[in-house]
Write a structure and sequence with these properties.
Layout (H helix, E strand, L loop, with lengths): L28 E9 L5 H11 L3 E7 L10 E9 L1 H13 L3 E5 L6 E9 L6 H10 L3 E9 L8 E9 L4 H14 L3 E3 L8
Helix pairs in contact: 1-2
Length: about 200
Amino acid sequence: MSDAHDGVDGRADDDDASPDGGHASATPSTHTVRLELVDEPGQLLAALQPIADNGGNLLSIYHERGNKTPRGRIPVEVDFEATQERFEGIVEALRTEGVNVMQAGTERYAEEVTLLLFGHLIDTDLSDTLSRIEACESASVADVSLAAPQGTEEASSARLRLEARAGETEAALAAVRELAEEKELRLVEPLTGVEA
């Protein structure tokens, strides 16, 4: 009789054995994912389904309904148990389903940069600008401060605080540069490689 046990989908858990024949990866550990959900009925359930479908054992859900992200969505923190391999499959499944994963375990955005954008931010659809920056897998918009002292008809400015994955800050900046050029906005980037 095999010592493999049936997974939630009825298949034997092939991910329990490590490549060297041991069972190091078989031990489930606690993982946290921080998601960004649209405030519509059924969105939380839809986000939890890939976790259940991929063998995650749900521990807790922290639904921050009163706190919105810069894009006006709701942050949700989910804790669950899974082996490392299953955890990676869960994160991939969430992204495949279109769920914005702001943080996944230790994948937390490790680098932070602050940028300034100047120009007709309102006329060029600030919401679209933020959504397109968020669509870049390298970064997440952590904070936005908008200043429009002359009203929405004139040029305005926005301070954006971006969180980038470790080693991917340049890719995030390149995406913002391209967007600023397309929308004819001026971009002031942080100095890099300069010690204070």
